[in-house]
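_Per-residue structure_
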Amino acid sequence: MSGARAGEDDRKRSILEATWRLIAERGYHTVRVQDIAAVCGTSTGTVHYYFPGNQDVLVEALKYCVEQAFARQSVELRAIDDARDRLLCLIEMQLPRPGAGVRDEWLIWLQFWTEAATRPELRPIHNDFYARWMDTVVRIVRRGQRQCVFRDDLDAEYAALRFSALHDGAAIKVLTGTPEMTVDRMRMMLIDFVDHELVRPPALVA
């Protein structure tokens, strides 16, 4: 890759990085190109050079944020062999702790859901990302079945759907400040689901 091309790629990434963090901080509909340019120390013309319209940069920033999260999770999960440990690691990585970067990523997801609900053109993007998330969970469940860690009578896809519904619902409650839901309770609920719904009972362990 030439130096000029590498420089352009770096500038584009810096714009996307600044944009998704602004969206997490201020909300999708309040971020302006002028705000993005100010954070990046550049001009609005430079932002428009890479992203012609306001919606272009906002949507691409949402996609960029999700891609970065997937890439980070993939690296960490591949280092863990045991399926239960792998799923517990995924849970830990996804907890929306106050002040953590993952919480900002959750805020992006929350706004992506809202936008996809009202803008049909975003649904294929949203559904593709969500299918990737579900596939991650399904593959962990099937891995656990092969390892005789998880019950072999499970429908892996249905188990992943139930896990994801609990996971997302708990996170939404944490993010919206529901008094009875904390990060610790979210963790406890998800681990409880893994150990009581997925893990093979001791009498069935080979």
